Amino acid sequence: SLIFIHSFKVGDKSKKEGLCEMKDATAKDKYPEFEGLGLTDSEQVSYDRFRFWKVVILVSIWYSFYYLGRLNWGMCMPWMIKDLGITKTQAGVGATVLFWSYAFGTLISGKLGDTYGARVMNTIGGIGTVILNIIVASMARINIMLIPWGFNGFIQGQAYAPTNNMITQWYPKAKRGLATGIFATSMGVASLFVWLITGTVAAHYGWRAAFTYPLLFCTLPLTILFFILARSKPKDAGYPEYKETMTNTISSKAEELRDDQISGFKAWGLLFGNWKFVCLAVASFMLYMGRYGLLTWVPLYYAETAGINLKKIPIATIALPLGMAVGPIIAGWISDRFFKAKRYQILTIYMLAFTTIMIILASAGLKTLGLPLSFFLLAIGGFFVLGSVGLVFTPACDFGGRRMAGTAVGSVNFFNYMGAGTQGFVIGMILDATKNWGIVFGLLSGCAILGIILVNIVRE
Q1: CA angle, 299 as apex, 298 and 304 as ends, to 5°?
Q2: CA–CA separation, 359 and 350 (whole Å)
Q3: Where on the phi/psi map is residue 401: left (φ > 0), alpha (ψ -120 to 50), or beta?
Q4: How would you write 222-276 as a 3-class SS string?
Q5: What phi, psi does 9 have (nearest 5°)?
Q6: Given pLDDT bands bounded at 50, 70 and 90, which one contains residue 255?
Q7: CB-based contact 72:194 (threshold 8 Å)
Q8: What CATH number corresponds to the domain at position 336?
Q9: Farthest CA pair distance, the chain
Q10: Is the pLDDT of residue 20 over 50?
């Protein structure tokens, strides 16, 4: 599907004229960002292939398995509660510790990524998370376990902002939606891998094995491969920088800034001095309450309310990551092709749909809906919430341009994971106090409504 969508950008003309004529077509119409760079048609095609396969696709595959060291807590929560004898609040605090430490990690990594590039930062993150997950798996007490788990959150935060910066270095605003949409799809695919790989290992060998083997045999080898093949900027691969084709936008204005204007803490000052950027960050906080509210608690929800055997939980609840796997790429493609890169319009549609589904789950409940309809709604909810998440980061890249993309994404991601961490202990306390899952889904719908309001204030 990725190959099809990438090829679809060539346009309807290629379908009529065939592959041979497509190769001979003037590259000017296909790659306006390369005009005036002195590249031949074949060099422009080579440039485009490199940035698609060795930047977008490679980092998306790597990031899909990087998540095995982060989402494993939520997937393994039913087993951990039983094995360690902890409460839901304690389990939720574990999620909070990871997400809040991630928030500070990603805030710093944005600036570091602008300096050192995604190739270095992602390698540090990949190796670090493997080591820290193995340490967590070796511990027996939850209080001590939270220390390396917190460091793991910080290390996990080293990759996302630099990766978005890398994509911004290779793609202009007009084509960035699809590129970031493909990368955001890796978050949904990652959820699917966690359900299939981590869930299967936990069901058969225990949660400690699920914290160890998937990372050793999947995350670590792919991290090494990424370091060997990836390049953070076009010049690192021998290509010139593209020319931004959309003028008078937040991206073009950011790229006109001088080095002395964005040095040190000045970049953060410029970003947070823009009230629209602040609204975007808070909207993203709300979205991540919804995203991780589902990812963290859905396995436990079905284990408790549907009476599903723990060994069957990963397969029974796989509808959620399946929906998440396809939401972002479709949203990114739609925003570029039909909304002319106006992300807020499709973002509003997605968030309204997610809100509707959460209201249905909150008001009807599992007994009324039944398992088949409940799983279907879960898949659709995952589709819309992660599709929304992917769209939030694209305007963040736009606010930063090539000069500050990492800093901008890292700043938004800080708010994201503050929201993700907040849902951890808040939902845990709600469940311990009320045992009412309807309140949980009602909370998530309320967060989405606030996000919709803020996104339409930003209108980027």
Answers
A1: 95
A2: 14
A3: left
A4: HHHHHHHHCCCCHHHHCCCCCCCCCCCCHHHHHHCCCHHHHCCCHHHHHHHCCHH
A5: -65, -20
A6: low
A7: yes
A8: 1.20.1250.20
A9: 67
A10: no
Asked if residue 369 is part of any domain, the answer here is yes
Give how far Cα 265 sits from Cα of 108, 256, 398, 443, Å. Answer: 11, 18, 19, 35
In a domain, 239, yes or no: no
CA-closest candidate to residue 122, choices 185, 65, 190: 65
pLDDT classification of 29: cutoffs 50, 70, 90: low
| 54 CB-contact burial (10 Å; exposed 0-12 / middle 13-18 / buried 19+) | middle
29-38, 262-271, 279-288: least confident range: 262-271
**pLDDT tens across 431-448, in order?**
999 988 889 989 988 988
Contact 281, 275 (CB under 8 A): no
Residue 208 CB neighbours (<10 A):
20
Residue 340 lies in domain:
40-229+250-256+263-458
d(CA 142, CA 90) in angstroms, rounded, equals 8
Structural domains counted in the chain: 1
313: in domain = yes
Supply the DSSP string of 345-391, one letter for each residue.
HHHHHHHHHHHHHHHHHHHHHHHHH-HHHHHHHHHHHHHHHHHHHHH
Q: Is residue 240 one of the residues assigned to a domain?
A: no
Nearest alpha carbon to residue 230 among 116, 129, 122, 329 = 122
